[in-house]
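Task: complex structure prediction.
Instruction: return structure tokens for all chains below.
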Amino acid sequence: MSLDAMLQVAASGLLMGLIYALVAAGLSLIFGLMDVVNFAHGELMMIAMYAVFSLWQASGLDPFILLPLVAALLFGLGMAIYRLLIARALAVRFNKGMVQIFATFGLAIFIRGLAQMIFGGEFRSITGTWLGGRTWNLAGIYLPLPQLAASLVCLLAFAGLLLIGRTEFGRALEATREDREAVALIGIDRDRIFALGWGLGAATVGVAGVMLAGFYYVSPNVGANFALIAYVTVALGGFGSLLGALGAGLLIGEVEAITAQLLEPSLKQVGMFAIYLAVLMFRPRGLFGKI
Amino acid sequence: MLHIDQLSASYRGLKALQGVSLDVAKGEIVAVVGANGAGKTTLLKSIAGLVTTEGSITFDGQDLRRLKPHLVSRAGVGLVPEGRRLFPRLSVDDNLRLGAYAITGPDRFKPLDLVFTLFPRLQERLTQRAETLSGGEQQMLAIGRALMSQPRLLMLDEPSQGIMPKLVDDIFCAIQRIRDLGLTVLLVEQRLVEALEIADRAYVLQTGRIVMSGPAADIAGNAAVRRAYLGL
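Output:
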């Protein structure tokens, strides 16, 4: 393989890896905060994609302009899911773990079915966007602008998450994550922090979904594959670690791109799962995990 | 200020408190003493809203039993729990400032001056993670964090537990100074002598019931108490 081809593969992996990382960040944030694995995480991304698709269809506005609106919608949806479903699942007295799994798994099936009912099963895509079909030739490496913009937005979203961690609210999130009972002793409403955490996690995956919709098909099942990659990313990066999710997302993006080049595109996930199995065997807490 | 009437509570299926009645007046230190398992910690947890109870708990006329734990704290009741329950990976500064999370207004961090006056060591360790502090320093931080929430009643659960003897004196001195500044203190402690030395009044708790109460000096001089708890 020539140097140019290798750089092209590396660049493709980097762009996709940043999106994987942001999808995983929302999952990691929620898990780190309250030890709940959200099995409907991919479906939240799918909702964001359909939301931006529907708004684009209705208004003709570019996904870039619709991004804040969809992120805000997802934030509200995340909070509502916590208040209406997760808080109740956490309140059960027995088999909490199983109840949480089935609650979010059931939610995923419900959302997917609802999308199927409303939009049908066919693939849809957003066309005619500002950046659609354009590429940037960087010294012989072709970077598709929608992917480049998506990865830059994902990077900005990561910076935003890390900045939130430095605010008083971010410290309250960390404190709640460390001792969810002790925070009440200093007047922190744990339920409110959990709800905001869910909102933030949903908004994060919403941002990824909106940017992805600029160059990826939208369908009721689109979230499932990304969610699977997100679970692997979170486990690789270390549960609850945002920087771990970023590092692992980039690693997965690169491994996927290289595998697709070496084997064939349909086998592109083989390398990712091979690394995942190796990490599980030799470093089960993940590459960057502390637990 | 705090009035508890016929309080009963179960903890892990066992009756930990049975018909406990207790009063704390503004500006006094009230000690609750008793052996391990007497129900002292459950009593404080009940006031803080962490345990389901029967009976009544009123604080300045407000029924605390109806409140969630974070609202009990916002009502002016601070608890320094057994085992401190700090946020280990956050810095000393973050732990202290989070204590004022529910406080609003420009003076929300004003109690920092008081905390640093009481515990100058904390000012030297502001950037250190809480988990890196010694046991005594962690206890100081736990008290400091509770003070940051500007409580009117400060409840302390075994503040001397797991601390070097020299630092125990510092902690008890600090508790006295906190009271001298006008705060009210409810102190649960196994170190009978030290607790009764600084307390105005005391209650003796035995298997979930109050078996004796009165001025701390009287309790300290009571032959039965000295026999039961000091082996004298």
